[in-house]
UniProtKB/TrEMBL annotation:
Signal peptide start-end: 1-37
Protein name: Purple acid Phosphatase, N-terminal domain
Domain of life: Bacteria
Record InterPro entries: Calcineurin-like_PHP, FN3_dom, Metallo-depent_PP-like, PAPs_N, Purple_acid_Pase-like_N
Domain Fibronectin type-III, first and last residues per copy: 40-138
Length: 428
């Protein structure tokens, strides 16, 4: 009996020591695994901070405070393996209600127009999967891009479905534009995390060129702030007016000049009191200098809106300049409806698009709807997408622009085309 008890005590001690050793191994291995996971890139996003023909800006997030993020990229050529080039990232620490985030950014330069490149981001031991992008051609024969109205949601499954189905149906789209109110509470990083996760599979492959909406300025509890999480995560051209760089900007793609404005005077005016005056001066100079065949302007709040409360200050600030320098189309959001006007000049219908500007409300791509948005006297077409979300495509070819509005499921809502000098309906 004494021998059995001694044997039992020996086995117990052995089991205890084995368990202790396993715990020690786990205590070393688990933090290592956690550290490796924190190093992994997420929220990989393409934008343009420079010329779309010869540059590509890539940003991503890591949870770890890593300093040595990198991009590796190489040309994709049939039957040829190109040498990989490696560039270090700029690193930015961003405070949020989720703690400190690390944003990495690289702008690739000296790229060949109209060419495909593969890339991956991260660092040794923590690389992303490889992805691919294509630079803008010098003189594109045809261009298609997508436009999404407000994607704000309680959860972002609706936005996921809208974006992913639109992308699958439009694989030839060069990029997409989100019209502001990407998220419902712009100072809550949990919503940005959900938005980026829902956008995975698209943001890594085509650029996103977004606008600031009023909800980008909202914090938990209703506190207002400048849209710091927006500007930290989307690396956009810094050619806008002082105090609004990264929020107000313009860029060219082929024959189109794109202008993005910031209409959040009620939210941001306390931080940038003269934001409308700054933008008016900048907009006039920008449109006067534009040489492209087409000029398109994007605003979150609409000069010609579909809610009871108007945006008279925005209309007074921007519409005269837009129409003086003849922007062809102005795309808007905020009211969560799809609608468009005839060509307008000074609030009056013009004889043709060559004599006025068409204002297009882009609808909603998220889950939020407004039953009180109504057709107004200036609408040629009106549709309130309460049944399902929607998106737009714009195609530029030869001497025409074609605008199509689709439901999330792919059903066509509306289609029309402008050419230089006339407006023509397009058969379905």
């Amino acid at each position: 009996m004494r021998r059995v008890k001694s044997l039992w005590n020996g086995l117990t001690i052995f089991a205890f020591l084995a368990g202790l050793l396993a715990a020690l191994v786990a205590s070393v291995a688990f933090p290592s695994q956690m550290a490796a996971a924190a190093d992994l890139p997420s929220h990989i996003t393409l934008t343009w901070a420079g010329d779309p023909r010869t540059t590509q800006t890539i940003a991503w997030k890591t949870d770890a405070l890593t300093q040595d993020g990198q991009v590796q990229y190489w040309a994709v050529l049939p039957g040829k393996t190109e040498e990989r080039q490696t560039l270090p990232a700029q690193v930015e620490r961003v405070d949020s209600n989720w703690g400190t985030l690390t944003i990495h950014t690289v702008t690739l330069t000296g790229l060949d127009p109209g060419s495909s490149y593969a890339y991956r981001v991260g660092r040794e031991g923590a690389w992303s999967e490889p992805y691919q992008f294509t630079t803008a051609p010098d003189r594109p024969q045809r261009l298609k891009f997508m436009i999404f109205g407000d994607s704000q949601s309680i959860n972002y499954n609706t936005w996921r479905t809208t974006l992913q189905q639109a992308y699958q149906a439009n694989q030839d789209a060069a990029f997409f534009i989100n019209m502001g109110d990407l998220v419902d509470v712009g100072q809550d990083y949990g919503q940005w995390d959900a938005w980026f996760n829902a956008s995975q599979g698209v943001l890594e492959n085509i650029p996103c060129m977004p606008l600031v909406g009023n909800h980008e300025t909202y914090g938990p509890g209703g506190k207002l702030a400048m849209p710091a999480l927006f500007t930290a995560q989307f690396k956009l051209p810094l050619n806008g007016p002082a105090g609004l760089k990264g929020q107000v900007y313009s860029f060219d793609y082929g024959d189109i000049h794109f202008v993005m404005l910031d209409t959040q005077i009620g939210e941001e005016g306390r931080f940038v009191p003269d934001m409308l005056e700054q933008q008016k001066r900048w907009l006039e100079q920008d449109l006067a200098a534009a040489q492209q065949k087409w000029k398109l302007v994007f605003l979150h709040r609409a000069p010609y809106n579909n809610k009871a409360a108007g945006n008279e200050a925005i209309k007074a600030a921007f519409a005269p300049i837009i129409e003086q320098y003849h922007a062809d189309l102005v795309f808007t959001a905020h009211d969560h409806v799809y609608a468009h006007t005839p060509p307008l000049f000074g609030g009056t219908p013009a004889d043709s698009p060559s004599q006025g500007t068409i204002y297009v409300a882009t609808g909603r791509s998220g889950s939020k709807t407004y039953a009180d948005s109504i057709a107004r006297e200036w609408n040629d077409f009106f549709y309130n997408p309460q049944d399902e979300p929607n998106y737009l495509t714009v195609e530029e070819e030869s001497n025409s622009l074609t605008v199509k509005a689709f439901k999330q499921s792919g059903s066509l809502i509306d289609t029309w085309r402008i050419t230089k000098g006339q407006l023509a309906e397009v058969s379905n």
